[in-house]
């Protein structure tokens, strides 16, 4: 006898947002399963970051439904959504530059002191991200790559079910991109991963499924091989080099 399908971790129905008379998101329908790695691509201004901003409580949609882990997301603040297990990073690194790496992590950890990770997990994450040698340094004095790893650490201490990453390899050198891709592959053991990226290699190596936005509308949804050969996606976003 077949087991019933598990409910989605994240579900969006007819999500719509307008800025003035322009649709930033137009009736987006979207589901993501637990333990799935999902990529989102599209040209600048297509609505990708706006989509994440709506899901993480920064913008209020005009209409539509959103559910995470079986609970409605409508009307919940970013802090409340973090409490449900949904967190995100930004295109530009956001750390407290004048504070030490250790203090940055401590501040994040204090948000959920009672329900947070164990000391063993804390040590495991530090070693995995290779942050122990820089704990006493000011966050502004470590490399961009180390700052991006610090951001991951600051999310992991929140015990996330889903981490939404907005261009996580932006500004990194080629060798650092290689290492970040490996880290994000390993991150999937700790949380589901949603990633916005223009670097197609990241999408191809990380995502189980890819959603494409163009001008606030979802035009394609499928495995990377299918999406990267989709003629409309090639024409409107990827260009002839990917044909």
Radius of gyration: 18 Å
Elements, N to C (H/E):
EEEHEEHEHHHEHEHEEHH
Here the CATH topology of the largest domain equals: Rossmann fold
Please outline the major beta sheet: 6 strands, mixed
CATH class of the largest domain: Alpha Beta
**E-strand count:** 10
Assign an overall shape: globular
- The CATH homologous superfamily of the largest domain is called P-loop containing nucleotide triphosphate hydrolases
Describe the overall structure:
- The chain has 243 residues and is of the alpha/beta class.
- The chain folds into 2 domains: 1-85 and 160-243, P-loop containing nucleotide triphosphate hydrolases (Rossmann fold, 3-Layer(aba) Sandwich), CATH 3.40.50; 94-157, no CATH class.
- The protein has 9 helices and 10 strands.
- Strands 6-7-8-3-9-10 form a 6-stranded mixed beta sheet, with helices on both faces.
- The radius of gyration is 18 Å and the shape is globular.
Provide the descriptors you would attach to this structure in a database record.
243 residues, alpha/beta, Rossmann fold, 10 strands
């Amino acid at each position: 006898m077949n087991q019933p399908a598990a409910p989605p971790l994240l579900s969006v129905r007819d999500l719509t947002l307008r800025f003035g008379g322009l649709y930033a998101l137009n009736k987006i329908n979207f589901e993501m399963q637990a333990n799935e790695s999902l990529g989102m691509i599209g040209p600048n201004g297509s609505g990708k970051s706006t989509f994440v901003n709506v899901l993480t409580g920064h913008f209020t949609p005009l209409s539509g439904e959103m559910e995470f882990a079986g609970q409605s997301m409508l009307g919940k603040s970013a802090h409340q959504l973090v409490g449900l297990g949904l967190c995100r990073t930004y295109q530009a690194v956001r750390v407290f530059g004048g504070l030490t790496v250790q203090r940055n992590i401590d501040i994040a950890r204090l948000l959920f002191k009672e329900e947070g990770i164990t000391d063993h997990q804390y040590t495991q994450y530090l070693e995995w991200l290779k942050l122990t040698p820089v704990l006493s340094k000011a966050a502004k004095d470590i490399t961009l790559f180390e700052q991006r790893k610090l951001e991951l650490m600051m999310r992991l201490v929140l015990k996330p079910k889903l981490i939404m990453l907005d261009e996580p390899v932006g500004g990194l050198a080629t060798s650092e991109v290689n290492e970040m891709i490996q880290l994000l592959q390993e991150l999937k053991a700790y949380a589901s991963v949603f990633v916005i990226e223009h670097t197609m290699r990241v999408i191809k190596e990380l995502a189980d499924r890819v959603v494409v936005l163009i001008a606030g509308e979802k035009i394609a949804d499928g495995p990377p091989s299918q999406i990267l050969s989709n003629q409309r996606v090639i024409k409107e976003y990827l260009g002839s080099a990917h044909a």
